[in-house]
Amino acid sequence: MSGAGSRLAAAELLHLTIDKRRTLDEAMTLSDTYNELEGSDRGFARAIASAGLRHLGWIDRTVQPFLSRPLAATGVEIRALIRAGAAQIWFLDVAPHAAVNATVDAARLSRGSRSGGSFLNAALRRVSEAAPPATVLAPESIWPDWLSAAFVDSLGTDGARALAEAQRQEPALHLTAKGSPEDLAALVAGTRLPSGSVEAPGGAVEDLPGYADGQWWVQDQAAALPAKLLAAAPGEAVLDLCAAPGGKTLQLAATGALVTALDRSAPRLERLKENLSRTGLSAEVIVADAEAWDPGRTFHKILLDAPCSALGTLRRHPEGAWIKTEADVARFPGVQARLLAAAANLLAPGGTLVYCVCSPIAAEGRDVVNAAVTNGKLVRRPVPPAECPGFEDCVTPDGDVQTLPGPSRDCDAFYIARLAASGV
């Protein structure tokens, strides 16, 4: 298919994610235009859409003065093509004339955008002459205003900017080894990170050595920290609450612990079971609501990876900043508080409970834990920096862990607290 076809597919992906509030993965399955592409054309369409989503706030703010009407009032097809064109010019190093001409040609391929070609051409020519957004806008303005304010409130300006700068880059592929990280690094021609995770070269995951025989699984290095901080021992009974899709379950099972993995989603637990089978690890898998589940026993070690906004994973899913609303995020703290209370009721005297969320928003992490501690249900077991190799500077004054990406550390943003039953 022509270069215009790639641009049209990219615009359709942007429309489905931003306007229809689909994830990019969902959009790629739904877009006929995208699925008709092959090889490098398909890869280019995805690259345009990804760049557009990573920089959407910058694009919309910078493009608006070039338009004769508000961007929000522009037809959805033309709006998506404007965003796709700007992404090529500003973030993919496509020659401006090629980006403008091919994107305008793409408009002619669709009935919904055919009549807007002149408007699109004028807008993109002004884009091609403008200073790139990176030279005039703050990094955190890549997000909606409400989200930028929430990140600054939770992380401070420097923390929010670190998160924004990381979002602009494609994340690395991290693996967790079933056995030795050093052996895995050698096997996949990767790099062992200080955290113990392995950074692997790119390409199809299934094609990497050791995948088929279950020697590793994909897991961001920050996501691997909570299970490590639980310090499960061989033969120890461990409860993994909200376990699906299972990366932390695999970690716990690999220690030789007797793992009970519980989640309310049966379909998501099927993926967990598939990974247990592939890796040859074992766990008891239970479909149940963690808030109501009563096993008639307690556990010495509990991991609660609570449902959250997932706003710490915007490097991998930048559309999350635009398909979630402030109201969507506000519903999580209540659920998280109830789950933490339920987990506390299942914790044996002297036991350890690790609470984590893949979100840096204080209301989902620090505030939930502070409330539980204030209510007397739990006490903190502070994490010393030495237990977090590669993340020593992420330990907070309270002894919690708030991971953040930085110039020398590629990771998602996770909040982690290690707790014990009060009175212990």
Question: Which stretches are poorly predicted, pLDDT < 50 over at least 5 residues?
Answer: none
Number of domains: 2
CATH homologous superfamily placement of the largest domain: Vaccinia Virus protein VP39
Order of helices and strands: HHHHHHHHHEHEEEHEHEHEEHHHEHEEE
N-to-C terminal Cα separation, in Å?
66 Å
User: How many strands in all?
Assistant: 12
Per CATH, the architecture of the largest domain is 3-Layer(aba) Sandwich
Structure description:
- This protein is α/β, with parallel strands linked by helices.
- The chain folds into two domains: 3-137, NusB-like (N-utilizing Substance Protein B Homolog, Chain A, Orthogonal Bundle); 220-421, 3-Layer(aba) Sandwich (Rossmann fold).
- It has 17 helices and twelve strands.
- It has helices spanning 3-19, 24-30, 32-35, 39-54, 56-63, 76-91, 96-107, 117-129, 145-167, 181-188, 225-230, 247-254, 266-279, 320-323, 326-330, 332-345, 366-374, and strands at residues 173-177, 191-192, 198-200, 216-218, 237-241, 258-263, 284-287, 299-305, 347-357, 378-380, 401-402, 415-421.
- The strands form two sheets. Strands 5, 6, 7, 8, 9, 10, 11 and 12 form an eight-stranded mixed sheet that branches.
- Strand 2 and strand 3 form a beta hairpin.
- Helix 1 (3-19) packs across helix 7 and helix 6 packs parallel to helix 8.
- The chain is globular, with a radius of gyration of 23 Å.
